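Continuing the batch. This is chain 6 of the set; chains 1 through 5 are on the previous pages. Same settings as before, nothing changed between runs. Recording input and output for traceability.
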Amino acid sequence: MADPPTDFPLPTDFPLDDVERSLPARFERIVRARASAPALVFGPRWLSYEEVDRRSDRLAAAIATLAPAGEAPVAVVVGDPGSAILAILATWKAGRLCAPVNPEHPPAYLGAIVRDAGAGLIVTDRDGRTDVPPGASARELRMDEVDLLERVEAPRPVILPSHLACLQYTSGSTGEPKGVVRSHRSVLHRARCSVLSLGIRPDDRVSALHSPSFAAGLRDVLTALLGGRRCCPSTSDGPDHVGWPPGSTGNGSRSCARS
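Output for chain 6:
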């Protein structure tokens, strides 16, 4: 398949009003404008904004079923960076507080974070550490066991700008890891600043070099996806469980050339 075209319409603005909505609402606006444009690029393969939207809807429905509504966060402990992005989007769509955690951390660190966060659900995959840490009372959802191509009615919870969106932890290099909680308004404000200040074009690619469990990594992901650009997780090879569209065989048949 030929490289995807780059002349998709793009909402080049990021109005201040969007900061007073929610992360799913901003992403939905981008999906409407750039439904068939590449969103996540996995080496030679890619998923469009519409495809990312549908897959995260399916995962959001599973999260909403397993994680009771409330303040208990959903820990995303997913090894593949591209899959982690889908899981984070799905957690927000389900109206849950997301606590992304890098599974490459030592088990003791992972256990301390999950227990401290009081996570009610752990989303993981075959590349993540799937053992629920001792002392944690969390359920587990393996996203590679969810049929992401199944069409379901996505949850549509009421999400206010002041609702909590993200719980991220410090490295703990100077002591115990400390959790920092950010609202939808706060995360959107940071993303808006990045989108408006970088001056990237509609067909540009934004590399996601760091785990989205870190503030800088999440910033890079959202600069791309909330700005309508292509997000390229640097170490993601596009796992099979994301559900590739027809023509995506993994041998470059649905290619997205890098500039």
